[in-house]
Amino acid sequence: VRRMKIEGIPVTEDYLSRFHFARLAFKYQRVFDVVQGRLVHLEALPHELSACAPEEIDEFAGPDLPPAVASGVCGGRVHPMTHEPFVRAQRGVTQRSIMEAFRSNATVFSSKTDCR
């Protein structure tokens, strides 16, 4: 930050806290572990973070989802934000048919997605 200021690069007051938040998010995000069948942190939380309240960890790592929901999101059967099943999943579109369509460059889902 000091170097940026010396070089004349504008730095907002909250830059350092936002940078730290982004670093935590990338390092400790929750990912689906196919062996365990549930969400785990990409890297184990260090002791000083494991003492934080779960809500604080959820802010940068994302919420811990029940295994069935996490598995559904990972498998493309459940919407990642609403946790509702995709309509196509109810019509019998399988994960295999989606992957085959993807490989053949066919459009299966809308290209506009609301992701965070």
Strand and helix layout:
Elements (H helix, E strand, L loop, with lengths): L1 H5 L8 H14 L1 E4 L4 E4 L5 H4 L3 H8 L5 H8 L12 H4 L4 H9 L13
Antiparallel strand pairs: 1-2
| Order of helical and strand elements | HHEEHHHHH
Low-pLDDT windows of residues? 106-116
The gyration radius over C-alpha positions equals 19 Å
Percentage beta strand: 5-15%
Q: Would you tell me the overall average pLDDT?
A: 82
- The shape is elongated
Level of helix content?
A: 40-55%
Total helices: the number is 7
Span from first to last CA?
A: 26 Å
Strand order of the largest sheet: 1-2
Quick structural gist:
The protein is mostly helical and 116 residues long. It contains seven helices and two strands; from the N terminus they run ααββααααα. The chain has a two-stranded antiparallel sheet with strand order 1-2.
Provide structural commentary:
The protein has helices at 2-6, 15-28, 47-50, 54-61, 67-74, 87-90, 95-103, and strands at 30-33, 38-41. It is built from 7 helices and 2 strands; from the N terminus they run ααββααααα. A hairpin with a 4-residue loop joins strand 1 (30-33) and strand 2 (38-41). The protein is mostly helical. It has a two-stranded antiparallel sheet with strand order 1-2. The protein is elongated and about 55 Å long.
